[in-house]
Amino acid sequence: MYTRDDFLTFFHQRLIPTNKAARLVNRVAECSNIFSQRDFEVMINGLCHMADNWKSVLQLLQIAEESGTPPTSVMLDRAMRVCAMAKRDTVVRSLWSRVKALQLQPTERMYQALIRSYSNSQLWPQALDCFRELQQTSPDDVPQSNRNLTYRLVLHACAQADEWEMALNLLDDIEIDIIASEDFGTDDERLTLFNIVIDACVRNNRLQEAKSILPRIANAQLKPQAVTMNTILKGCEPGNAADAFAWLCGMGIEPNIRTFNVLIEKEGQSGRWQRALQWFVHMQNLGMQPNNVSYGKLAYAFGMNNQWRLAVDTLDNMFEAGLEPDLVVLGHVMRACQKARQFALVLKVYEQIVDKAGLTPNIRTINLALHACRYVNREELADVMSLSFAEDDTTKKMPPTGHLEWGLRILQDTERLNLEPDSYTYVSAFSLFAHFGAMAIEPGMALLQCK
Q: Are the C-beta atoms of 334 and 315 separated by less than 8 Å?
């Protein structure tokens, strides 16, 4: 039998695994009368550092109340925190209502949890209202802790709610504190505040306002990082990204792989696939190893500009670099081949997904393959796949394009993988059935009715 001190020793350990936490709480319930109010605060505090322990924290709260120990501000503070981490947003707001009902002293962490819960639920106006309420309190009424986190949360809410002007105004209010106050964290944490405001401006097409923040970063004795550069580049018009990159490099900001991924995508969007390829090569020349995202953006740039052969070559280049294509890359290559009406290659890439790469197709790749089955030339498909199709009376009656058997197999993949067809799936399937007529209706409709 554990003693009170044994329990407190266990709960003093941080990062208690979920299964162990549940067992400990069940033991606590068996002898709850030996614990004081302070003991329950210690135990709840010990569990609140891992999001998965939120149920155990709520159970401890219930055990404390059932044993005659009312919840304290500390208990509810920690409970709101862990529930916010676990994205149990309605629970957070329910706990906040209890704080109000019990007339307990709220803490800044409670407001942080509440702002986070509203943001998780995309209730951006409520998140900002919560912050305004916090602003109206005095430090004596609400103990302050980690001001940087509070402003990070509310600035993020501003960005999501398209309140870029409010984000700029908040930055004006706290800029002196960012420079001078120790409450605003490390240099990286301070820089994050500026980056979030830049992101808020970029999201609302306020690129000049975003750029105007860069001198303020230097004034705060901070050095802009690649994430700052990447955020600004994302907000640039496709044709202006290269000039913005040169300007940002001139300010001493060093790019990273994500920077070049953004540039490759922007050049593809502007129709300059050659420039996209140049950025890809430039990244390699700087000693950076392109990742799956890099190859995906490059395949996208090729596909957007009818360079299907180069898109297909991207897969071989990935294998040579020791990378395995993911569904995003393969989807971009399939789309490039579809746009160029290279339907046999669309199906070949689909087979790479299923057989070679060992990936599970998603509904996008299913749709691309199903569409290709309607238009593929069977002789071309046999050539690309190195197959030979035996001719019988049935195949002789078929039109020269389209492959019903393959289409039905792809529909079977949809059923087998429990994928939910979308409107494009149905349009492609019915187009295939109509193309082959009576022989396709019965098996095709049977598969679709399964969904």
A: no
Q: State which residues form the domain around 404.
A: 341-451
- Please state the domain count of the chain: 2
Residues 6+ apart with CB under 8 A from 90: 117
- Please name which of 27, 33, 22, 43 lies closest in space to residue 66, comparing C-alpha atoms: 33
> Which residues lie across from 234 on neighbouring strands?
none
Handedness of CA 84, 88, 92, 95 (dihedral sign): negative
User: Do residues 329 and 411 both lie within one domain?
Assistant: no
User: Can you say whether residue 197 is alpha, beta or left, with left for phi > 0 and alpha for psi between -120 and 50 degrees?
Assistant: alpha
Residues in the chain, how many? Answer: 451
Terminal alpha carbon distance of the chain? 55
Whether the CB-CB separation of 51 and 86 falls below 8 Å is answered with: yes
Written as six digits, the tokens of 183 are: 């409450």
On whether residue 429 sits in a domain, the answer given is: yes
438, 419 contact by CB (below 8 A): no
| pLDDT, tens digit, 9 for 90 and up, residues 361-412 | 999 999 999 999 888 887 777 777 764 444 444 444 445 667 788 888 888 8
**Closest C-alpha among 210, 270, 207 to residue 279:** 270
Say whether both 241 and 335 belong to one domain: yes
Residue ranges for the chain with pLDDT beneath 70: 1, 14, 138-145, 183, 356-357, 386-401, 438-451
Q: Please indicate, yes or no, whether residues 318 and 355 belong to a single structural domain of this protein.
A: no
* pLDDT tens figures, 25-75: 999 999 999 999 999 999 999 999 899 999 999 999 999 999 999 999 999
Using the structure block, give the residue that is written with the tokens 């691309």.
Answer: 368
421 domain residue, yes or no:
yes
Torsion sign (Cα): 433, 435, 438, 440: negative
Residues 281 and 325 in one domain: yes
Final residue belonging to a domain, choices 339, 361, 381: 339
- To which residue do tokens 């322990």 refer? 53
